[in-house]
Write a structure and sequence with these properties.
Blueprint lengths: L4 H5 L1 H33 L3 E2 L2 E2 L3 H28 L3 H30 L1 H11 L1 E6 L4 E7 L7 E9 L5 E8 H5 L5 H4 E9 L4 E3 L8 E7 L7 E10 L1 H38 L1
Antiparallel strand pairs: 1-2, 3-10, 4-9, 5-8, 5-10, 6-7, 6-9
Length: 277
Amino acid sequence: MKKTPADVLGSTFYLARIRSLEIRSYSIQIAVMVGLGFFLSLMQGASFKPFYFPLEYFMYVAYIMLFAIFFEAFFFTILEIRSQDSGAASYFTAKKAAKNSLKIMVIAIIFLVLAANPISEKTIENVSSYTKTYTLEDGNITFDMNSVDRFGLIYNYITIKGGSYTGNYDCYLMYADYYHEGMSDPASRSRLRFTDKNATEPLKIIPPDITFEEYVVIIHAPRNSTGTMIVTFHNDVKDAFVLYTGIFVISAAILHAWWFVYLQRYIKKYGTELVSV
């Protein structure tokens, strides 16, 4: 009777088949993840000019696919443990998998501790926000801002208050395209408008567009007004992205904690066999 490769090579043949199947499975899932992520980004308004590639939904797809990969990795690891030709090889395979799970748990816990720390939150807020002082020229100030960052993960807003100028003013948030087309009356084509505001009271402006838009902010005080206005630019990570990222990290930590505990049965079983030999 003719022997098959499996008969000749034994466990080596099966391990090679398992690892080959594992690589193909991961490759297909990564390809699906990238393709679906790109599609969702395009649906969310991705463009080359101006450059805008929203990563939020791309990341959500990645989180889902990573969970699928986690479970597949568990399945293939069990197959590898059971297909080894010796108890020692099974023991070290289980030990290595448990060690990797422990690393993922530690990284997840460190991430959560840092994210939940009020000091980290305050540090990020201080780093991500900055202030500029503008001088009124013939009663006007103009400057640019965007609704979100180029990757759609951070939303922008501003706070305006008087510096040396303490009088009243009007403020308009206008699409940059309209402004550069030479629209002479910002009030007629503004996205947001605030009239008769007093410079001694802070004015918070949050762009209403959730996708990437370029704006020009126009501050219009009475003609010949002089003085300065202080504008603080704020950049905050989207709450939904923070929430779902936190859920993913917590779930990954719990999943790998369960997997670490589950592997102990194999470590104990094959470790006992190793000692007895």
